[in-house]
Automatic annotation (TrEMBL):
This is DoxX family protein. The keyword Transmembrane helix applies. It comes from Paenibacillus soyae. GO terms for cellular component: membrane. It is found in: Membrane. The chain crosses the membrane at residues 7-25, 45-64, 73-92, 98-116. It comes from the Bacteria. Keywords: Membrane, Transmembrane, Transmembrane helix. The keyword Oxidoreductase does not apply.
Length: 134
């Protein structure tokens, strides 16, 4: 269980650092992010702020202990973000840009898988104690 917890926090930290950098660039409307999103993809400028704030909320939810149901929503949001980024890059003819979203998606899925393994380990311990009256 301890190895799973360590692996979870390493993978999750890497994932959240990436999303935090992305959120910072979107909220501050950094020139590269602003140009790439508004000109290349054709999204409105206010959409950057929306994405950045949503990512920050997701990051906070994943860092707070417990609240597994909220964590699932955060993972769903990050998954939708990755799929949308992939599809958007493919739609404008930038397949190399879509590779980044696939890599991030794999990190999100690995982090979620490890969270489920940790959660299952916690519940198994409780169920076993209840069943055997320890």
């Amino acid at each position: 269980m301890k190895k799973i917890k360590i692996a979870y926090w390493i993978v999750t930290a890497c994932t959240l650092i990436g999303f935090a950098i992305s959120a910072f660039n979107e909220i501050t409307h950094s020139p590269k992010t602003f140009t790439g999103t508004t000109e290349l993809l054709g999204y409105p400028a206010y959409f950057l702020t929306l994405l950045g704030v949503a990512k920050i909320i997701g990051i906070i939810v994943l860092l707070v202990p417990r609240y597994y149901r909220l964590k699932e929503w955060a993972y769903a949001g990050f998954t939708i973000d990755c799929i949308s980024a992939f599809w958007s890059m493919m739609a404008v003819g930038n397949p190399m840009g879509s590779i980044q979203s696939v890599v991030v998606f794999l990190f999100v899925m690995l982090s979620y898988y490890l969270l489920l393994k940790m959660e299952k380990g916690d519940y198994i311990g409780i169920e076993e104690k209840a069943r055997f009256n320890y």
